Amino acid sequence: MTGDATPAVQGLQGITATPILTGPRLGGAASSRNLYAIGVTTTDTGRRDTALVRRARKVDRVLAETYPDARPELDFSSPFELLVVTVLSAQTTDRRVNAVSPALFAACPDAAALAAADRTELEEIIRPTGFFRAKTDSLLGLAAALVERFDGEVPPRLDDLVTLPGVGRKTANVVLGNAFGIPGITVDTHVARLTHRLGWLDEATARQPVKAEHALGALFPRRDWTDMCQRLIWHGRRRCHARTPACGACPVSRWCPSYGLGPTDPVEAEKLVTTQGRA
Ligand code: SF4
């Protein structure tokens, strides 16, 4: 992994544990649990930090057992394809993107072909994903930049990826981690929500992707970064929903300070569990 592709991770000595008392919905059953979140700037360490690291890693191990197949739910066979489908996935479902991507990659198998694609034809292919005109602009600009600056190849460096049109840190880390095998921390809406609910990050940190990357990077070995995020995303899509989490059917509830945000009755909670992700 290149240095540029890795967040500047702070060692454990740079972490402080801060009680979460102001979480928006940390009341009721949640309030009696072990509530500590992680900050990234102070040098105070202690037993609570160690406990937080252990608890976070335990949760990740249980999620790994629960979701052994956790992986991106977008279909792709190369870094180029993952980059394109990730851009297309904004504001739509993975299923819709997966429905159009075979035709897209048959017509445009690489960056050079995509850069030379007919705009009208491209719009028609990706129309089902919504915002198709803006996405066509993004794809044409992305492909042109790949051709002009990277010989048509997707660069395996965070600093290069984020210079591409339509590519932010989230997309860049998805591509690094899942197409290049370079550990990356993807802070999407699920990761931000779950890391706060689980008491790993305070709310302010969870809302700031770069800070969240650094703080999460300090909790886990680098080799686990990509899969850990993928497991959180799967858990967020299947059980720890934004509106009503299935707390009574949650395999990590005993380590979660937000237990009780959703129904704790097992039967009621089980009804909220979905078997697939963002369909
Ligand atoms: S489903 Fe409930 S118990 Fe499980 S992680 Fe989410 S908030 Fe915590």
From TrEMBL:
SMART domains: ENDO3c, FES
Name by which UniProt lists this protein: Endonuclease III
Highest rank taxon of the organism: Bacteria
Keyword vocabulary terms for this entry: 4Fe-4S, DNA damage, DNA repair, DNA-binding, Endonuclease, Glycosidase, Hydrolase, Iron, Iron-sulfur, Lyase, Metal-binding, Nuclease
Enzyme nomenclature, EC number: 4.2.99.18
InterPro entries (UniProt xref): DNA_glycosylase, Endonuclease-III-like_CS2, Endonuclease3_FeS-loop_motif, HhH-GPD_domain, HhH_base_excis_C, HhH_motif, Nth
Family membership noted in the UniProt record: Belongs to the Nth/MutY family.
NCBIfam families (UniProt xref): nth
